[in-house]
Amino acid sequence: MFKRILLATDGSDASDHAAGLAVSLARQMGATLTALYVVDPYPFLGVGEINPMGFDAYMAAARSQGAEAHAQALRRATAGGPPVTVNPRLVEDVSVMEGILATIKQDQIDLVVVGSHGRTGLSRLMLGSVASKVVAQSPVPVLVTR
């Protein structure tokens, strides 16, 4: 049924749970899994020009978080059964929603799997705002996990 599954991950506990479910589905259906991490645009526009080290530090930290989120998905894909093909993807310079929608289109994704809550702090108070937007705007089915 589903041959190309997109895991939208941010490395959070909810995303790790979603990764487990996405891997399980991919394994059962013989699907490939794209693990997508979107780097939020640099929040201090204009400051980077004054202090480029701030921008570089932000991007290095974001890329490191993305690499860990991908490693999390890869660990899940190789544990507990036949390995699942995982295509890690890191997208920059767009909003999370734009990155997810573009990847759905570019990779001809059949199903999106996303955690209901992502990052901590103020973003968490939004109660899964990214998941809500994905459900509302995705042209393909979306599975939201808790």
Describe it for me?
The chain is 49% helix and 18% strand. The protein is α/β, with parallel strands linked by helices. The chain has a single domain (4-145), classed as Rossmann fold (3-Layer(aba) Sandwich), CATH 3.40.50. A five-stranded parallel beta sheet has the order 3-2-1-4-5, sandwiched between helices. It starts with a strand and ends with a strand.
Helix/strand structural class: alpha/beta
Query: Which word captures the global form?
Result: globular
Q: Over all CA atoms, what is the radius of gyration?
A: 15 Å
Distance between the termini: 23 Å
Average predicted local confidence, pLDDT: 87
What is the fold named in CATH at topology level? Rossmann fold
The helical percent reads: 40-55%
> Helical element count?
6
Strand percentage lies at 15-25%
Query: Low-confidence runs (pLDDT<50, min 5 residues)?
Result: 122-127
Q: Looking at the chains present, what oligomeric state does this protein adopt? A: single chain
SSE pattern = EHEHHEHEHHE
**How many structural domains can be distinguished in the coordinates?**
1
Q: What is the level 1 CATH name?
A: Alpha Beta
Strand order of the largest sheet: 3-2-1-4-5
Number of strands: 5
Level-2 CATH architecture: 3-Layer(aba) Sandwich
Q: Mind telling me the CATH superfamily name?
A: HUPs
Biggest β-sheet description:
5 strands, parallel
Quickly list its features.
single chain; 146 residues; alpha/beta; Rossmann fold; 6 helices; 5 strands; 49% helix; 18% strand
